[in-house]
Amino acid sequence: MSKQPLLQIENVETFYGKIQALRGITMDVHEGEIVTLIGANGAGKSTLMMTVCGNPRAASGRIVYDGTDITNMPTHEIMRMDIAQSPEGRRIFPRMTVYENLLMGAAVTDPQYLEEDFEKVFDLFPRLKDRRDQRGGTLSGGEQQMLAIGRALMARPKLLLLDEPSLGLAPLVVKQIFEVIKELNQREGLTVFLVEQNAYHALKLADRGHVIVNGVITMSGTGKELLAREEVRAAYLEGGAH
Amino acid sequence: MEYFVQQLINGVTLGSIYGLIAIGYTMVYGIIGMINFAHGDIFMVGAFISLIVITALGLTVSTGLGLTFVALILVLVCAMIIASAYGWTLERLAYRPLRGSFRLAPLITAIGVSIVLQNYIQIAQGARVKPLQPIITDGYTLMTKTTEAGEFVVQISNIQILIISVTVILMAVFSLIIAKTSLGRSQRACEQDQKMASLLGINVDKTISTTFVMGAALAAVAGLMFLLYYGVIDFFIGFVAGVKAFTAAVLGGIGSLPGAMLGGLVIGLIETFWSAYFSVEYKDVAAFAMLAIVLIFLPQGLLGKPEVEKV
């Protein structure tokens, strides 16, 4: 991989007030890859994902996307650079219909793709089509997760940031969602940066993985390598205390 | 019966003006969760701008019908643009720097801004009431009833027709904007989850500014209508009308656009009927008592959204 990475995170530190959440994170995501970041609650996974999007802003370090330094750009401008996020907690607009939620995803794209993109999302998640005119707040957890991913896809991203898509979902739904991610990656070459607590599924899916503990990356390797390591399993069973 | 119909017409007219102002309260509250107490004063500023432009144009009752129509549109546009500039500036100078600060800070600032605007107009335009000779006169007689005391005539004046129809049109247009356009969707998205909206590439600050501008423009329309209807304004009209419109917004369910319209109508009707059948002195008591009663039984207001959200 000699090519310039699509997303490059260099020595990033982020604070919430006086509390330091990220203590110098360095990692990268290459085009066409699935990279996962696994870690326990409060390890800094979502913080890193949000820092990439400029909210909160990195206190030090550099984030480069597609050759552009985005470290100090406002969030809405970063999100117009073909980056889309399906955030922690899904953040569906509860009083908008499924259709409107998806339209919001396409807020910054050329309307000429609208129809095609709707078709693609409804194709990936037929459940959303059935629920098209239902309010987002009335969907089940799994449907909301599908909607969150679908909404992110409506932005026609090159880089998809996925924050814990498996959280709180039934195993069958989790499997379904991971299959969709895999399909998008293989069929369309979508680059995915996946944050997960569900280490097993994430590492099985990912090309490469990193383990984050208390704001520091402690282990890196291919998905298979990490999955085989005893410490990784231990970290997840014991909540990443060491 | 005739008396009732007449009061109904008067009430709907008054309610229209309240409704137009209430929309500004409700939209701003919806998007940043703040009561913009200076909104009533934007309405007052709108009325003054209208008066100034009308005077400058030399518009009087003897101006021909076609010319009056064109002139009034010009007045309306001027008032909307200038009041919008006020609204935009207020948000920029007084409220945006306080975003993310504790909840009471922008509220107190809004009260401060309201005082500033009132005093500014008082200094710039004088403290005395400003009269305007009626420009639109006449009307239609709907019913007549002859009694021993004389004739009772039910009339709808042209100005009432104008106020009610302008209100209906504007409310329809704004509802459509909120429901169907991408601007409206962005506004609703910011209202429901600002962080997520920014993650979708929405410029939240710009959307909030636009909301202030829209609210101020509607307040300016209400200002012109008030001026044409009552024929007198002073620097203090924003306070009273503002409090009423705010009550209307809360009554209808703050944050809800149809709620603001309904609330305005209800407050206008209560005030008018109370004045007509009981006593003029206590009309405000009646309006506020209605608010208290509704809030006891429907804390979210008549059309407010209950806070049930699935996570």
UniProtKB/TrEMBL annotation, chain A:
Keywords per UniProt: Amino-acid transport, ATP-binding, Nucleotide-binding, Transport
Domain annotation ABC transporter: ranges: 7-239
SMART domains attached to this UniProt entry: AAA
Any matching Pfam family: ABC_tran
Keyword ATP-binding assigned: yes
Record-level Gene Ontology MF annotations: ATP binding
Alphabetized InterPro entries for the sequence: AAA+_ATPase, ABC_branched_ATPase_LivF/BraG, ABC_transporter-like_ATP-bd, ABC_transporter-like_CS, BCAA_Transport_ATP-bd_LivF, P-loop_NTPase
Family statement drawn from the similarity comment of this UniProt entry: Belongs to the ABC transporter superfamily.
PANTHER family (UniProt xref): HIGH-AFFINITY BRANCHED-CHAIN AMINO ACID TRANSPORT ATP-BINDING PROTEIN LIVF
Name the UniProt record assigns to this protein: ABC transporter ATP-binding protein
Organism of provenance: Sneathiella chinensis
Phylogenetic lineage: Bacteria, Pseudomonadati, Pseudomonadota, Alphaproteobacteria, Sneathiellales
From TrEMBL, chain B:
InterPro entries: ABC_transp_permease (IPR001851), BCAA_transport_permease (IPR052157)
Pfam families according to UniProt: BPD_transp_2 (PF02653)
Keyword Transmembrane helix carried by entry: yes
Coarse class of the protein's main subcellular location: membrane
Keyword Electron transport listed: no
Assigned keywords, A-Z: Amino-acid transport, Cell inner membrane, Cell membrane, Membrane, Transmembrane, Transmembrane helix, Transport
Bilayer-crossing regions: 12-35, 42-61, 67-90, 102-121, 159-179, 208-229, 285-303
Location in or out of the cell: Cell membrane
Entry membrane topology: Multi-pass membrane protein
Family of the protein in this entry: Belongs to the binding-protein-dependent transport system permease family. LivHM subfamily.
PANTHER family: BRANCHED-CHAIN AMINO ACID TRANSPORT SYSTEM PERMEASE PROTEIN LIVH, HIGH-AFFINITY BRANCHED-CHAIN AMINO ACID TRANSPORT SYSTEM PERMEASE PROTEIN LIVH
Record-given protein name: Branched-chain amino acid ABC transporter permease
Lineage: Bacteria, Pseudomonadati, Pseudomonadota, Alphaproteobacteria, Sneathiellales
